[in-house]
């Protein structure tokens, strides 16, 4: 049997400790599968005294992860600390430059520096594997990088943040407010103490930027993503969506259009009958639409120690199985230096259906005035519903419009005109509709 694969792990938190534990528990099975043992020989974390739930005696400890990456005799450096810069970037770069394979779950790092790190990996003939960085345990990177060879992707979209999906699922199921759901998610450990990054869509954007590069062969471009979070979604939206046959999900969408590539993260209405609408709670899902295969939907656990460790260990096992001298495939599906510049499609040119909820003064002529503004902007309506005023709330009515496919520019112009007309008593709510193929 070949010599053991020597692994160094930097970061022994939720994911890192799970990886170390599962590698120990499944050692025999992994040895049989890979034809060689996988042995953790070095680790790094901040607190030496903390119990990690795994026996680390005999394993070399490093306070400095960069020293672990640079100085030790390891074959694979596993980065599970997090952070887009700092020790995560420095240690990954040091490992790759010294010809060591790297496995990471760090979407923030890859989103920001993935292409330059891929170039170092490819120059040195080593692997940079990152299955766990997008949608946790779901094997979406391998699917896009390997299984879809020859396919041209037209759109990739998904539910990429478990916290947001958990909140939206409970808001719909239990009729409770966003704030109440968020507080519960924090209590149950599904949301961070500072949840901004999740609920405002930044985490989804990091993952989407990686999927975009794989789908379209472009450089990663995290700053070119249209971003809207879920914090202004109300019960009124969720109820209206349900009545109209839709469900609200926070989607990350990357799509080829005439003017370039759209990357957008925003609350989205999906038809209740679609498969992605059935993805509930903390579960993630990614849909990939291609010319040869058609539509593929992958769904499963997107976070958590064991689910994420499963993807990390799959990446380590791939390295254990690879043979010396074997030419590794490029990190983002094509060589880093051949990735095309990202051409951003203008958001105003986005075409699709829209849901618009307006709270208006209960006066004669308002309904007709709204319909007129829509017509002026060539927006054709699938439905327009007026709800009677609730005497409890006051002298108001709700008008809900669902449009046929139109442009973002037309919608913005129409809503601006309606706002200027002075009929609204509240901020208009506009939610884009996404229809799976
Ligand atoms: N949690 C998930 O479900 C999940 C899912 C997918 C991807 N990820 C990604 O996986 C990575 C790790 O996430 P996590 O949830 O496991 O994080 P975590 O629980 O906060 O653990 C981070 C670990 O890194 C160590 N660390 C931090 N700074 C360090 C430094 N300067 N030197 C040495 N060690 C350092 C910490 O040490 P101490 O323990 O001593 O403080 C801790 O063990 C992140 O990139 C995250 O985005 C996580």
Characterization of this structure:
The protein is of the alpha/beta class. Helix content is 36%, strand content 25%. The protein has helices at 14-25, 27-34, 65-71, 86-97, 107-123, 140-147, 162-174, 178-187, 196-199, 202-216, 235-243, 305-321, 366-376, 408-420; strands at residues 5-10, 38-44, 60-62, 76-79, 101-104, 128-129, 153-159, 226-227, 246-257, 260-271, 283-290, 294-301, 351-361, 381-387, 396-403, 406-407, 429-433. Strands 7, 8, 9, 10, 11, 12, 13, 14, 15, 16 and 17 form an eleven-stranded mixed β-sheet that branches. Strand 4 (76-79), helix 4 (86-97) and strand 5 form a beta-alpha-beta unit. NADP nicotinamide-adenine-dinucleotide phosphate is lined by residues 10-16, 44-47, 50, 65, 80-82, 87, 105-107, 132, 136, 303-304, 308.
